[in-house]
Specification:
Nuclear Transport Factor 2, Chain: A, 4-stranded antiparallel sheet, 2 helices, globular
């Protein structure tokens, strides 16, 4: 195989590598911000600090987060967060949901359990 333009091949390689690395890094930093905001919200709600937090789904400026205790002496819960002016803030947390309550909080239907 004869390479006619090594510079074009190199640029294509760099572009491919960039596309493989950058989107997950951006998503990961958003997940980190959501997790940090969830920890802050949980502390304000008097939850123990040793909770496993999993970002389940993000839709626009809203996120659904799973909260599981590391010790099994309490039930897991679901938290909803909203991004306001670039900062994630907890809206509500619980184990069961009335659709009307989620509607009042403007939680997108795609995030509802």
């Amino acid at each position: 195989m004869k390479i006619r333009n090594p510079l074009a091949l190199f640029v294509a390689f760099l572009l491919t590598a960039w596309l493989a690395i950058v989107p997950p890094a951006i998503a990961g930093s958003d997940d980190q911000a959501i997790i940090a905001a969830t920890k802050k919200y949980l502390a304000a709600q008097s939850y123990p600090a040793d909770m496993k937090i999993t970002v389940e789904k993000v839709e626009g400026d809203y996120a659904r987060v799973g909260v599981e205790p590391k010790k099994k002496d309490m039930d897991g819960a679901t938290a909803f967060l909203k991004r306001e002016h670039g900062t994630w803030k907890g809206l509500t947390i619980g184990t069961g949901w009335d659709p009307a309550d989620l509607e009042k909080l403007h939680i997108p239907k795609s995030l509802r359990p």
